[in-house]
Write a structure and sequence with these properties.
The protein is α+β, with helices and mostly antiparallel strands. The chain contains 10 helices and 14 strands. The chain starts with 11 loop residues before the first helix and ends with a strand.
Length: 313
């Protein structure tokens, strides 16, 4: 992961991203004890409810008026289970029951798919890997509902004026459409943001044209251990260069506490799908226990005035 915000405002592409400010006190978990606090709650639990509560939910995400859109049981939990079994059978992920393989391979995260964040430094290799991923995904879900289509269809329903498609370069070459991430014991995401321009500075890729970046994440399996379960926390704080110092030094939790910045914990069950603005500082505590936390994740490029929405991983 790269962090640094050095000289980022010098880039003319970046100025347009830094608009409004941004860290707001109060939290959804805090609202229970601070009755005067304004609400910051997700929209959900299904598409009709979301659309009746908010005419333009993606715009509400872009402006961080809400922490997330959460669609409960967007995908059949039995299909989540079935696909996880298939991943193990095909050797795409480690069997958590197989201690020997675990010892031989100490990696705490396995990706099934193509990651721009991990592979984008070599553009040709990244695009070639994406071709393999598309070939793999062509048959991987046979016999099950297509989980990636579920994400794309949900996005299209959230803004019917736009065309949702896999991200592509001007020559038509496609990015990975989404990625399965399997997180084993100890894997943790410290407070961070995801943004191809603000964080990763990948100005040479077509997705840099979008002002806003969202994530669409579908829970495939929770890592429940001794009654605890690692779930994402969205802080009510959009990234700015000022906040970057607390991210880089891993002191954001103390800063958030001092500033009274609230947040929202996204508790998911298998089959639940949620969307959030990845410029919100967010984190996932360490996975505990033998069962991996498995999600299907995608990034989403969105601009209010752009007729297209790009999805990639
Ligand atoms: Fe993230």
């Amino acid at each position: 992961m790269t962090d640094g915000s050095e000289n980022i405002l010098d880039n003319p592409l970046v100025g347009r991203y830094i608009g409004f400010a941004v860290c707001l006190p109060f939290t959804s978990f805090r609202i229970k004890t601070m009755s005067a606090a304004p609400s910051w709650e997700p929209l959900g639990p299904d598409l009709p409810s979301v659309l009746s509560a908010e005419a333009d939910p993606l715009c509400a995400l872009a402006e961080a008026h809400i922490p997330a859109v959460i669609l409960r049981r967007a995908y059949d939990p039995a299909h989540c289970e079935g696909l996880v079994r298939r991943f193990i059978e095909r050797g795409l992920m480690r069997d958590p029951q197989d201690a020997e393989t675990g010892l031989a391979d100490p990696a705490t995260r396995i990706d099934i798919g193509t990651s721009l964040g991990n592979r984008g430094n070599d553009r040709e290799a990244f695009l070639a890997h994406a071709v393999e991923t598309h070939a793999l995904f062509e048959t991987l879900f046979d016999g099950f509902d297509h989980p990636i289509k579920t994400i794309y269809d949900a996005l299209a329903a959230l803004d019917t004026r736009k065309h949702v498609m896999t991200a592509r370069e001007p020559d038509g070459r496609l990015y990975g459409p989404a990625i399965f991430r399997v997180h084993y014991t100890g894997h943790q995401y410290h407070p961070h943001i995801d943004h191809v321009t603000l964080r990763e500075k990948r100005f040479a890729f077509a997705v840099t044209r979008f002002v806003h970046q969202f994530a669409g994440v579908m829970c495939f399996q929770n890592a429940v251990h001794k009654g605890r379960c690692a779930q994402a926390i969205l802080h009510r704080c959009l990234w700015t260069p000022d906040v970057q110092r607390y991210i880089a030094t891993q002191t954001f939790p103390r800063y958030a506490e001092e500033q009274g910045i609230g947040g929202y914990r996204v508790d998911l069950e298998p089959g639940d799908l949620y969307f959030f603005n990845t410029r919100l500082i967010h984190e996932v505590p360490a996975v505990e226990g033998p069962n991996p936390r498995i999600v299907l994740a995608s990034f989403i490029g969105y601009s209010v005035e752009d007729p297209e929405i790009y999805v990639w991983s």
